[in-house]
Amino acid sequence: MRKVNIIGSGVAGLSTGCYLQMNGYETQIFEAHNLPGGVCTAWKRKGYTIDNCIHWLVGSSPSDSFYRLWNELVDMKSRKFVDSEEWMRVETPDGRYMRVFTDIDRLEQEMLEKSPSDERLIRSFTGAARRFIGFHLPVEKAPELFGPMDGLKMILGLLPFMLPLRKWVGISMQQYADKCRDPLLKRTFESMFTPKTNVLFVLMTIVWMHKKSAGFPIGGSLEFARQIEKRYLELGGKINYRSRVAKISVKNDAATGIVLASGEEHASDIVVSAADGHSTIFDMLDGRYIDAKTKSYYDSYETFPSYLLVSFGVARKLDDYPREAIVFPEKPLTTDRIPKYEGVMIRVFSFDPTMAPVGKTVITVWVLTREYEYWDNLKRTAPEQYEAEKNKIAEAVLELLEKRFGDVRSKVEMTDVCTPATFMRYTSNWKGSFEGWLWTPKIGLGGLRKTLPGLGNFYMAGHWVQPGGGLPTALKSGRDLAQIICKKDKKKFTTSGF
Fold it and tell me: Domain spanning 306-430 has what CATH number?
């Protein structure tokens, strides 16, 4: 039985482990933290649950092809998902707002009513979304294993969508937003994920929501990750928590195992890193196995940003408010030491009763930032000032919430502030990025190699080899990699599900 060491118990690592266990490999996962899920996590404070990850899960219903893949890892029929009428609401300082409905017809009507001067752009956008309703991503087989017939079958399936795929993957949301006449619509397009994301990703997100296959799992992110952990352990896998990997052992240009930070060594036939890509290549492998193409990713590809996550537990129900809003306050958030943050994302978790005690609500506020170095340096060199800056951010956010909801300050029972330094500490994600490579027009439709030049018996999985972010990407990355390993070992890839 071939032995595989997997670095990282995020969704990509758990997925890789599950599928390899299904195919007769002996695997164990080494995780620096004491919990599964990686970024897909949550934590409790004073009876409130702060959710860090899932906004929507693609494949939450059988209307999408990812549902069957999820059902190989999680008993999907036993999970309850909530679908929202609105993806988000965008609010500008002048009091205007745009409701981004998950139903394409309602979305089109809302945009035309609020921004009639941009009718052509709106109808082009919603028309493209309707066209993609019948589109299904080919998820069954790893692209690296496609033969001539697989390629032909894929081309035939994609043929009706080929031109719009190429068109919309080559345009960023910022480029599309810049064509708007109405500032509200411009803000809305800019706020759909990140401005540099290609339009195709946003169109597909709207389609998934329209088909009600992008719901939120009741119980949240950590509970969902726990379900995959449970599946992995039931398949015979082993997870070593609080086991940070320092080095990947190499002999004769082939990976032979891993070395923990404690000095403990674990030999294996294959090593898979589902951890941070930069740490893997430049720290665990000392940058020895890299060519110009791989180096170019880390020199020129853009990562998802990092963020501050400011959370409050309030002794009040907020059922009448949208569960997600992008707010551009009249007075942008700022502190003495860092630039202003114009738009912030407010999430109200009243739709999930597991997040707070009865009659109470968790509010989380996401502030995207590229200032990961500032926060990391401050935490390491000036911890007292770091805490002071966190308190300033919390106070600025609370002032914003008080203006938006009214009667919040007096109801606050819990306050929690996470910074990019927090996420770098727990996930080691390069630059504090929350989902690896940003899916920009520059990247296009392809993925990155799951191997490194010149290194045998080694593979990578996760967001650093599969741009686009999200849990389905992590799931498929691990599943595809298991197929590749099986193919190399001349084993038939098999799966089982619930």
Answer: 3.30.519
